[in-house]
Design goal:
Layout lengths: L1 H5 L6 H5 L2 H16 L2 H18 L5 H6 L1 H13 L14 E4 L5 E4 L3
Antiparallel strand pairs: 1-2
C-alpha cells in the first residue's frame, strides 16, 4: 500500500515526447541516404562487425568511439539534412557593424 505513495509521479507529456520529432526525422533522413548508397551500408556493416568482434554486443563508449564511419555518416546526414534549417532572428533596432576590413555593415531593425 505504501509503495503506491512512494513511487515518483509520472513525467509530464513534454518529457515523454521531447525529442521524438527530431530523432525520428534524423533517422528517416539517414535511412533515405543509406538506401541510395549500398556500398556505404556494406562498409558500415563491416565496421560494426569489427567492433562487435572486438568489444562484444554491448554498445560501450569505447566501441562507439571506434565506429568512425558510422559517426561520420550520421554527422553528414545532419549536415545535409539539418533539423533546423535556419535560425530566424530579428534585430531589435538598427545596427551598424564594423568589418575586419574597416568597412561597415548595416543590419536594419526587424
Amino acid at each position: 500500500f505504501l509503495s503506491f505513495f512512494l513511487k515518483p509521479p509520472p513525467p509530464p507529456p513534454s518529457q515523454l515526447f521531447a525529442g521524438h520529432e527530431t530523432t525520428g526525422t534524423t533517422i528517416a533522413r539517414l535511412l533515405r541516404e543509406l538506401d541510395s548508397r549500398p556500398g556505404l551500408v556494406k562498409k558500415l556493416r563491416e565496421e560494426q562487425d569489427r567492433c562487435v568482434a572486438e568489444f562484444g554486443q554491448s554498445l560501450s563508449p569505447m566501441a562507439m568511439a571506434q565506429m568512425r564511419l558510422a559517426d561520420a555518416t550520421i554527422s553528414e546526414a545532419l549536415r545535409t539534412w539539418p533539423i533546423v534549417n535556419g535560425v530566424f532572428r530579428a534585430a531589435l533596432r538598427d545596427l551598424e557593424v564594423k568589418t575586419e576590413a574597416g568597412g561597415r555593415f548595416r543590419v536594419p531593425e526587424g
